[in-house]
Write a structure and sequence with these properties.
Blueprint (H helix, E strand, L loop, with lengths): L5 H12 L1 H18 L2 H17 L4 H10 L2 H14 L1
Length: 86
Amino acid sequence: MAQLTRHQQSIVKRYYDNLDTVLLQRVGEQVTDLYLAEGKKRAKLWESVAGSLEKLGVPKSRIEHIRSSDDARQLATLLQELLAKD
C-alpha cells in the first residue's frame, strides 16, 4: 500500500476522531427510515443499525433487545441517551 501524504494522514485522523459523531448522525437518520420502512428493507436497516451501535460501544444484549422488539421508538430513546453522553 502506498504511503499517505501528511494531508491524507490528517484527513484520516480527523475521520476517526469524529467517528462517534458520524455514527450517531447515521443512527438518527436510520431511526427516521425505520418508521417508514417495511419488509426486507426494514430488516436490512436493523442490521445496519446494529452494526453502528456495536461500533458506538452499546452492549450486545441491549442491541438485541431493541432489535427483537422491532420498535423504532426504543431506538430513538437509546439515541437520545447516547446524544446526552456526547
